[in-house]
Request: fold
Amino acid sequence: MPDLLTDQRSSGDGPIDGVPARTSHDAIQRRRRLDRRSVLVFVLLSLIAAGSATLFLTWGVNGYWDYALPRRLEQLAALVVVGAAISVSTIVFQTLTENRILTPAIMGFDALYILIATTLVFMLGSETVVGISSVHLFALNAILLVVVATLAYRWVLTDTSRGLYTLLLVGVIAGTLFNSFSTFMFRVMEPSEYDTLLTTLYASFNLIDTTVLRIATALLVLGIVAAVMMAPTLDVLTLGRDRATALGVDYRRTATKLLIIVAGLVAVSTALVGPVLFLGLLVANLAYQLTRTQRHSITLPAAILISITALALGQALLQHVFNYAGTLGSIINLVGGTYFVILLVMESKKT
Reply:
């Protein structure tokens, strides 16, 4: 009898653990094709990202390597940190909300960060804020964002009665409300406080605080490690809340952990370069389309590579083709906003 079972397994004609051999064989072949595709996608994305970074570092140097290369390496580091933070936070957030349209920026996380930073300047005064080191100020803003965002959004995202458009409406209202409060404080604060706030909030890839960049990099590494450790749980969450709960996932506790990761990564990207609204939407959906899988061990690194490519190429084009006629964020928001409308139209046709 053992010999017969061995023969059936090797010939592909008999059942394996109650699963028809041909079905099992087809599943194995599909898995192998997916693995080969994933390797090919990673190789291509890595080559494209490396080429984009090289182009950004070398375009228009004209022999001034001693001046240009250190400055561009610093900018490239910021591009990598921001791209990775936005990519990971978006995919984790989309898994939590069970759709591919919502992002932390669309739900108002960036606007909440700006409101918190504005409130600190408004309440403490510009002299006090200037006296605080950039590291301590970043840490304070990040901690407040994590606490407030987790408390404010946890009840919204853990309620299964809210559909996509309800969550989208909540995000739009929350973002508008946060921006309105920030604008009100802009209007009534002193000019010196307003200047301090602009310096604190609206950084760019051309003006990077290296000290904050180091702290942001450390926080990014912690966020990525936490997301990778929770990748199996994230894979289960793609099945839906009810199935994930049936498989043993403590949904509310898991949602709290994921919101903390998302809020921390949003603080990293916003503190370095300010709000970039639609980048996460673009890179996350491109990662899904290219990898054709729900496995977060594949989609997360793919999205990071796509984001680095987009930011490096975009910044290079902005500097050398458009001569800084605009900002990288405005270009990304134009393309991403158009893509967002297309996704909404496609989603409405499905329903």
User: Anything to note?
Assistant: DSSP finds 15 helices and no strands in the chain. The chain has a mean pLDDT of 80. The longest helix spans residues 21-58. The CA atoms of residues 276 and 330 lie 8 Å apart.
